[in-house]
Amino acid sequence: MSKRALISASSEWTFEALEAFEEEISRIAADKYRLDTYPNQIEIISADQMMDAYSSVGMPVGYHHWSFGKQFLTTEQRYRKGHIGLAYELVINSNPCIAYLMEENSLTLQALVIAHACFGHNSFFKGNYLFREWTDASAIVNYILFARNYISECEERHGMDAVESLLDSCHALMNLGVDRFRRPRPISADEEKRRQQDREDYLQQQVNDLWRTIPKKKKEQEEQWPRFPEDPQENLLYFIEKNAPLLEPWEREIVRIVRKIAVYFYPQRQTKIMNEGWATFWHYNLMNDLYDEGLISEGNVLEFLQSHTGVIFQPEFDSPYFSGINPYTLGFAMFTDIRRVCENPTDEDKRFFPEHAGTDWLETVHHAMANYKDESFILQYLSPKVIRDQKLFSILDDDADRKIQVTAIHDDAGYRQVREELSDQYNLSKQEPDIQIWEVSLRGDRSITLRHTQRDRVPLDEDDAKEVLKHVHRLWRFDVHLESVQDEKTKLIYHCNDEKVWTDSGETSKAKAKT
Amino acid sequence: MAFLIIDRRQQGKQKSAVNRQRFLKRFRKHIKEAVTDAVNKRSITDMDRGEEISIPRKDVSEPIFRQGKGGKQRRVLPGNKEFIRGDRIDRPKGGSGGGGGKASNQGEGMDEFVFELNQQEFLDFMFEDLELPNLVRKQLKDSDSYKLVKGGYTRDGIPARLNVVQSLRGAKARRIALGGAIRREIKALEQELEALADDDASEERREITEKLERARRRVNQIPFLDDFDLRYNNMIQQPTPTTSAVMFCLMDVSGSMTQDIKDLAKRFFVLLHLFLKRHYEKTEVVFIRHHTKADEVDEEEFFYSRETGGTVVSTALDLMNTIVRERYPTDSWNIYAAQASDGENWQDDSPKCRDLLVKSLLPLVQYFAYVEISSHKEQELWQTYAEVLDTFPDRFAMRNVSDPADIFPVFRDLFERKPK
Fold first, then answer.
1. How many domains are there within chain A?
2. A404 inside domain
3. Most A CBs within 10 Å: which of B65, B82, B118, as the mutation test of the A interface?
4. Given this model, what pLDDT does residue B107 score?
5. What is the DSSP string of A302-356?
């Protein structure tokens, strides 16, 4: 390949150099690697602005809430004290795809970041099935703007404190605001605005119907009232938005906003390894291509490799720096290994991966990126080699046992088990407690009962659960019960009324009910 | 591929400012406690900076449903060294699920949420709900002091304010207006002259030349600058709020005043000074110490020199009166005074103090605060000052203090927002 002139010999970036990088990387990404992206919108920001961006959890214009202030203070404190460096970039799943680049980055880092965010993450947002189905990149910025305006309007009309405590309650249930097995309708700010009034009226009317208090004949009442909800409901926020008896229309609207935002973030929570791995895999390849074409110098490459190595550093489990598995490391190792399995498969690879060993690697990584989430991606693609390289092992911590047991390590007997257990570790429905709406006492005391189904006897964190119940009570405004159930047997029931939260064991309360 | 590079560095800083304020508002109870605490503990020259605030983490937490400890938990970890399948290992102390390295080694407890309150916010919390008494009084309403601003032009004024451009512009206009007719005449004469044949040396020609010369002379006789043309800059007086304050610290340094008592007094002075600094562009401090005789001294001597002997309070008030009248005219200075004493005074002197205050000093000052630092109440001076309080309840205040922790509440009390 004929060598071309360096894009820039300086270590300081300039706008011209950024443009040149964008163009060159764009060319390679599209022609050589078939990366399909949204148009890029690169924004240069300062460290302070990066901290701002951090604290609004990646929303370009978040609504106001104290928790974002807390986030900001945490970041600021740790950054000022030198505990953390700030990310080189932050990228938003929107169309055009907005990427924030820090002004402090050197030229090499800016090139790295453009490759990572503007082509890696960007193509992931556009290509991965979860993002395609769950989010609408072209509508999100407008929607968030709408949400912010609506919420400040509510603050003016109903007071800041009322809105703040409502948001607190919604945030507590945010993770339980998605229908995991049903695709959401696309969001649109215009539509939301247009239909807001209609919806307020209509919603309220529906709720009124549900809670109609004119009594039916007594006999019917005893037998004929169907159970409500007919089936347990997993989307707590949705259920509350539609059915909470005393919420004002504007309160329902805010519950809806938090729910919609939860949906927007749902794919990101399930694709951490893939998303970061994909972006890291591409910045690594793209930077090497730039070097091969003579567009960056050896010095640039050394600097890039140093950052790259830092990003994919995985402390071992017994290191003081260990804080879980580094998604960059695992994701990068896996995508790199998929390529290796395609290009130079060993016998072991052929045994483990008969479908893709020896096939076209580019085709295979694109397929993996588009059709998997962390959990299924690991189950499908985690190779023995990666397990060996990372020295992964699985442990079982059983509170009935005095010791922790090592159940599998990186050997022939262990590969599959490590793979399955690691996959479970990224399965949100196994990592987060399974809590559903069980029953509402429509004609009785209007109380709502939630059910927590324990897996492997793992209980809820009691302190937090009690706090969350107060939030549920604030939304529902009648008594709240939460049954923690293990193998069909109720272990613990939480209760919350106007004044307090308490627990009792299932047995005693049942005994009481019988007498 | 279409793309766009935007430089955002100049815009939208402090996007989180609102959220930060929300946070401070939500936890104001905690923060206020911490600030009050810091004020009591800090070295007194050291009020003018922020403070690290810790709030119990459980109070700032945002609860969600989480898995608790217990049951069977599985985990996959990286970096296996010597384990093989079936190994049984001890639970790491305090950690959960074999995580090993969860403990914080960053020097901060995990149970505390720590953040930095900046200096402005610190002082805001410290002065919350406080208001300078009669602060507004000196502004606009009471327009003793003026600033001169330009306000157009006038026909008369002092030479120093002569506006040359305006004057010459007027003169030129006048010259054009007065000379118009003559110039028209000159033009006509010139044309006539040209119309005559060049060789003609007739009577007519001479006559025209003469007329022309006369006309030219008349034009030249129009004065270049007339009194009438002169314009002066007009200055008008505009009332300005006074933005300087002077603070008088008066303290008894007689033998009965121990260093402890003086430290207490110092607290009070420091707080008052900080408070004034926030409200005025410029603040000066005058230290007057007294035993049987009063001196103006510097800060060091004020707080740390020891004297013996009796106490005559009126000497200090007298000196203050003299200094105010000499150096701090009330039209440009807001005057505050704080007096600290253990309450002892020469018996016959107290009525004299009262007269000085009521007749001379209190009409001049914005506020006069008296703190008596003693564990037993009702000293000589206190009773006399109680009479002063009756005469000037809005600008005179007195309190008794006996402990460092009393200072801040007393200070707040003194300057509390008064219901109007």
1. 4
2. yes
3. B65
4. 40
5. HHHHHHHHHHT----TTSTT--S--HHHHHHHHHHHHHHHHHS--HHHHHH-TTT
Q: Tell me which of A430, A459, A487 is where a domain ends.
A: A430
pLDDT at A340: 96
Q: Are residues A44 and A70 in the same domain?
A: yes
The residue out of A397, A430, A463 marking a domain boundary is: A430
A248-262, A413-427, B126-140, B239-253: least confidently modelled range: B126-140
Q: A82 and A202: one domain?
A: no
Q: Which residues of B12-28 are buried (b: 16+ CB within 10 A; e: fewer)?
A: eeebbebbbebbbebbe
Question: In whole angstroms, how far apart are CA B219 and each of A248, B51, B230?
Answer: 90, 81, 21
Instruction: Name the β-bridge partners of B247.
Output: B285, B336
Structural domain span for residue A474: 433-514
Is residue A444 a contact partner of residue B76, using CB atoms and an 8 Å limit? no
Could you say which of B64, B75, B115 has the minimum Cβ distance to residue A73?
Answer: B115
Tell me, yes or no, whether A97 and A65 share the same domain: yes
Residue A369 belongs to some domain of the structure: yes
Contacts of A56 in chain B (CB under 8 A): 15-16, 19
Tell if the pTM clears 0.80, that is, is over it: no
Nearest to B79 among A15, A26, A317 (CB): A317
Q: Class for domain B244-414, per CATH? A: alpha beta
A284: three-class secondary structure by DSSP: helix
CA–CA separation, A95 and A114 (whole Å): 16
Domain assignment present for A1: no
Furthest C-alpha separation in chain B: 143
Question: ipTM for the complex?
Answer: 0.84
